[in-house]
Amino acid sequence: MLTVLPRRLLGAIPVLLVLVIAVFTLQQVAPVDPVAALVGAKASPEVYAAARHELGYDQPLPMQFVHYLVNALQGDLGQSSLTRTPVLSDIATFLPVTLELLLVAMIFTVLIGFFLGLATAQGWRGSGVLRVVMISGASVPVFLACLLGMLVFYRYLNILPVTGTTSYYDAPTGPTHFLLLDSVLAGRPEVFFDDLYHLILPAFCLALTPAVAVGRVLRSSLETTMHGDHIRTVRAKGMGEKRILFMHTARNSLGPVLALMGLQIAVMIGNCILVELIFARPGIGLYIARAIDKADFNAIAGVTLVAGVLYVMTNTVVDALQSIADPRVAL
Known about the structure:
Elements (H helix, E strand, L loop, with lengths): L3 H26 L4 H6 L5 H11 L5 H13 L13 H36 L4 H11 L4 H15 L22 H7 L3 H38 L2 H8 L4 H9 L4 H25 L5 H10 L3 H29 L6
Keywords: Cell membrane, Membrane, Transmembrane, Transmembrane helix, Transport
Family: Belongs to the binding-protein-dependent transport system permease family.
Subcellular location: Cell membrane
């Protein structure tokens, strides 16, 4: 891992640079005037010209890009024309809600995916039914899973909430903006469990399709590994199937699974916008939806950059985990 991680971090630099160039290019070709969005359509020409000069839009494009890149490295993503506050400040408020959802969804993905993969690969009782579930679950779009979940668990069973993050109006809002963490720091366990209670259904809906994909890849990887020569050797020595599975097969089968999870993270980040809108969670999805509706390009660009950084860093961690699971990756 010590050799893989520095190389992956260095490799992430040109990827992020290309992302910044793409966002800057889109800002230039988009039919949206960020100056007019900031000062208002009825602003006088003098006010418009002053704002344009202050934002640096009267400079040549190369200088604009250099200033944009420097500001982005310093955490200055501009001011939102919707909230009239710095975009980075808005993201710091909304992003923790989304990260909580992603974290719980990833836990669901690992638990459900590994259960499906192990059960179908080992031929446990009912594994045939699980194979059908895996095939059908892979074709369920996230919005349909959300609507079905709301219909079953809220409308008919009435056991799970479907809106917001908590039922407590006096829930702590700081210092981290992560409600799970802030509730612990504030000594409010009831808020902690209530937040988890509100996270179950949206996180499950977000994790359903990635979990099925993980289960299918894990099953295929396990079946391939279990037919290897080294598995045949330890089986000939009389080792039990469960010990073979957990001591010799599982770790060697994790490489493709981890690679797939790195790709599924991008899908989950994109689906978070839709899930948060359906379940009315005040996360980055709600923020970006409002920004798109009001043509707030600074907010759109800021969220795009943050999502790109999040995806690149997560895949860097996945690469490091792959090197731990299979040391040959480091070579």
